[in-house]
Amino acid sequence: MRLSTTARYSLRALSDLSSSPNNEPVSISGIASRQNIPVTYLEQIFGKLRRGGILESVRGAQGGYMLARPANDITISEILQALGEPVIFGSCQTEKGCENAVTCPTFNLWRKVKGSVDEILRTTTLEDIADEKISLLETQALDPERVEAKRKAEESKGE
Amino acid sequence: MRLSTTARYSLRALSDLSSSPNNEPVSISGIASRQNIPVTYLEQIFGKLRRGGILESVRGAQGGYMLARPANDITISEILQALGEPVIFGSCQTEKGCENAVTCPTFNLWRKVKGSVDEILRTTTLEDIADEKISLLETQALDPERVEAKRKAEESKGE
DNA sequence: TTAATCTTGATAAATTTTGTCGGATATGTT
DNA sequence: AACATATCCGACAAAATTTATCAAGATTAA
What we know:
CATH superfamily of chain A: Winged helix-like DNA-binding domain superfamily/Winged helix DNA-binding domain
Oligomer: homodimer
CATH topology of chain A: Arc Repressor Mutant, subunit A
CATH class of chain A: Mainly Alpha
Largest sheet of chain A: 2 strands, antiparallel
């Protein structure tokens, strides 16, 4: 269960893009060199993002890319969707689905996990990550080590 | 962002294993044929699970595998860990980590997502999935389509 | 002893991801 | 018009990962 580098490149590139002055197209080569991403690879990615309605482009000299909408109106979920990187945990969750979902013991588990992840991705916008608006408290509350420590504390209390 | 078939095979196989009468070792070939998993592949997987403390084995004729602990004491998180399938979303979350986590705009996002997923995997046991104990209500509340529908309903209400 | 079964390591096949290349098209600037 | 800067597109290549197979060995019940 991991995130592709395509997705990571994309978020970094979009973050870079959205932190530059608006209304002016930004060239791929600039972003690529600042973010240390292969130019030709980023071209492909931006193509997808454009076709997916995340970016708009201006061709020709002084051209480049810009956000199709304000950063606070673009969710991470949309970005991943435009990249064709669906969040899938069970085979139940592929396009064609899985005929034996009813009897599959893991169906509900993956449904729950996917729902939880989707919830976060759908409520986080590009602006949030560009401005690092995600509350540190919020992330700490979910920090595995802290949760584990808390669990153990309660466990030993109950004994 | 997807789950490997190794992980899916494993959960199905373990689910099969834990639903058979205790104390008796179950052969790989039996599980493989019931669950339609390549025998030799399942051998590899069970090897990892044994070394990871999830399974115990009995060699020789009438031998096979059995759970090293009660099913309600084995979490999904542990299983994935034994398989060497860490839940990783940012490069920040690899073993070696990522030196620029402090300035990385996506660090907090992936930390939050990972925390949320880990929380579920850590609190769900093998028994839960074998018995399908995960509440249907719980999964429906997180169903993407329902959440989306709800969101839209509230949106149009507010206009 | 024999048959069943796990154990291990190497390797092969398949698939996916990541990255490259060549050329086409568009457009501002000189 | 000529040129420089860019996006655009499809095919391809390289690398990595996942999935699967194979062969030979070790263990043990019957």
